[in-house]
Amino acid sequence: MPLKVRKLHPLFGGEASGIDISKSLSSAEVAEIVAAMDVYGILLFRGQPLSGDQQIAYAQHFGPLDLGLRKINKTRVKHRLGHEALIDISNIDESGNIADRNSRKMFSQLANQLWHSDSSFQQPAARYTTLHSAVNPSWGGETEFADLRAAWDALPDRTKAQIENLTSEHFALHSRINLLGDTGYTEAEKGVLPPVTWPLVRTHPGSGRKLLWVGIHATHIPGMHIGEGRLLLAELLEHATQPDVVYRHHWQPGDTVMWDNRATIHRGMRYDLDERRELRRVSTEDVDVPARQAA
Ligand SMILES: [Fe+2]
After folding, report:
1. 117 Cα: distance to centroid of ligand 1 (angstroms)
2. How close is the Cα of 116 to the center of ligand 1, in Å?
3. Phi, psi angle pair for 242, to nearest 5°
4. DSSP secondary structure code for residue 28 in this structure
5. Dihedral sign for Cα atoms in the order 83, 15, 215, 125
6. pLDDT tens track of the chain, all 295 residues?
7. Ion ligand 1, residues whose Cβ is below 5 A away
8. How many domains are there within the chain?
9. Among the listed residues 178, 174, 215, 180, the one whose alpha carbon sits nearest the alpha carbon of residue 198
10. Tell me, what CATH number does 131's domain have?
11. How close is the Cα of 158 to the center of ligand 1, in Å?
12. Is residue 295 part of a domain?
């Protein structure tokens, strides 16, 4: 059965049906999903519970797996999900209890509440992320999304001309250290993922649309006064995430949301950190490789 997509928001996002993502996909199915992702930026697959292995296998159809911040944290945060690329988006420690408030795990839960594109602090960054819902808190914990292509489209021409040829620098630990106050990183850890520089305006390869490449990992604009650059980045991020352009996803168990990190940014909404919230994330690197064929 071919992929069907129902729109989730006037600007982007779709609920997908017609493909069972728990099974190995044909190359035609992979191509259908990629084509839909290029249009919608995010796809929701509802009511398809996935094991960790199934989620890994699904993501591998789209490219090599991305470890992101695990490259820094793997010696400090014990892994409880059994696969290095299965990223534990939860407030649960390795013994199955609510993690300590001052643990790195909790800082990560808080950092996820800031608008970002996964792994924009490295090159290659992440292309696709799949996030699968396991346990939801009684309030909060939704995930919000915004489309960076729509953000570019809506900018005044004067601003477009001002920023078109600028760059920005992204650093993996900027939000953790400078914004949230996590002082626990060693100098060696700070050096694992050195800052990277991106154009502030990029073109999305799948749709050919220009996009405003902003997010919380951006620290400053090289060549511009530090304060002026930071204010410009904050203004552009605010522009990209106005309430009427945001899709807020209310998680149900068995939901998988897949998003294109090259076209969208996202954030988790606040929830009571004393309640369990468990999501599993798998991301792929933004590199071009032949899609894996069905077995
Ligand atoms: Fe994220």
Report:
1. 6
2. 6
3. -60, 145
4. H
5. positive
6. 699 999 999 999 999 999 999 999 999 999 999 999 999 999 999 999 999 999 999 999 999 999 888 778 766 656 677 788 999 999 999 899 999 999 999 999 999 999 999 999 999 999 999 999 999 999 999 999 999 999 999 999 999 999 999 999 999 999 999 999 999 999 999 999 999 999 999 999 999 999 999 999 999 999 999 999 999 999 999 999 999 999 999 999 999 999 999 999 999 999 999 999 999 999 999 999 765 554 4
7. 118
8. 1
9. 215
10. 3.60.130.10
11. 31
12. no
CB 253 within 8 A of CB 136: yes
Residue 217 lies in a domain: yes
CA of 67 to the centre of ligand 1 (A): 12
Ligand 1 centroid from CA 48, angstroms: 21
Decide if 160 is inside a domain: yes
Nearest Cα residue to 30 out of 128, 100, 171: 128
Contacts of 281 (CB under 8 A, 6+ apart): 86, 87, 88, 89, 118, 129, 130, 131, 132
What three-state secondary structure class fits 232?
A: helix
This prediction's pTM: 0.95
Centroid of ligand 1 to alpha carbon of 83 (angstroms): 18
For residue 292, being part of any structural domain is answered with: no
Domain range for residue 214?
A: 4-285
State how far the Cα of 285 lies from the Cα of 122, in Å rounded to an integer: 10
Is residue 151 within 8 A of residue 11, CB to CB? The reply is no
Start-to-end CA span in the chain (Å) = 19
